Amino acid sequence: MRTVVFGAGAIGSVIGAQLARAGQDVVLIARPAHAINAHGLKLWRPEGEQLVRVPATTALAQLDLLHRDLVVLLCVKGQDTTAALAQIADAIGTRTPVFCCQNGVGNEALAARDFSRVYGVVVNAPGQFHEPGVCTTPATTSQATLGWAATRPGSTTLPAA
Fold it and tell me: CB neighbours (10 Å) of residue 156?
């Protein structure tokens, strides 16, 4: 299964790096993507700098995603949600699961208008974006909880790598 992290700012970069370090098939949608492809994704943590090699592109349409099992982690800022969802729908359709890893209210409702599988996400992995491909997180043992709260049936917790 391939995980598409749509929006490689602070939170998207932290989540994408953790998934890639855990051996998951991850691709980042970032603007601009060339810095990540050229130099890797640098994540500064209290224990030091981690350099993660993960592919990045500026648009889903640039990827060969046909006949793949995909999930999308939507990590854009709230004001970019509508445009991001349109790009996702155009590139891979509306049956792909979309996990909203965003601050703000109403992003899941926007996604649910067109997508059949939408999930809210609680992210316990703070991050700060410095420049394309460079982020800081103070977390050493953070977790991203995907789906419902970890105490509810059907939730999934992804440990930090």
Answer: 12
